[in-house]
Design a protein that fits this description.
The strands form 2 sheets. Strands 2, 4, 5, 6, 9, 10 and 11 form a 7-stranded mixed beta sheet that branches. A 4-stranded antiparallel beta sheet has the order 1-3-8-7, with no helix packed on it. By secondary structure, the protein is mostly beta strands. 0% of the residues lie in helices and 52% in strands. It is globular, with a radius of gyration of 13 Å. The mean pLDDT is 96.
Amino acid sequence: VRLVESGGGLVQPGRSLRLSCAASGHTFSSNTMAWFRQAAGKGREFVASISRSGGTTLYADSVKGRFTISRDNAKNTVYLQINSLKPEDTAVYYCNCQTYWGQGTQVTVSS
């Protein structure tokens, strides 16, 4: 299983980003997918997950209302739309499937 994240960068507070995670090596549509993040000096924390069909999503309380997880099973890709970015959203964002992880994409929110 290979997971490759993209879409991170340096953005100003209040702006938006869309992260992508391209998956290969497994039956993408058969697996729940998730996003986690890890800020410098802190542990990795759950951000959001999405069921196989996309019909069920879960979010950490800290991101509810600002983050939206979605997936395109035809493209084997899961997305994380991040709106109204805050400095505390600064972290490396990781894509997860079962026990597999991507390499992460850095999101830095700063003016």
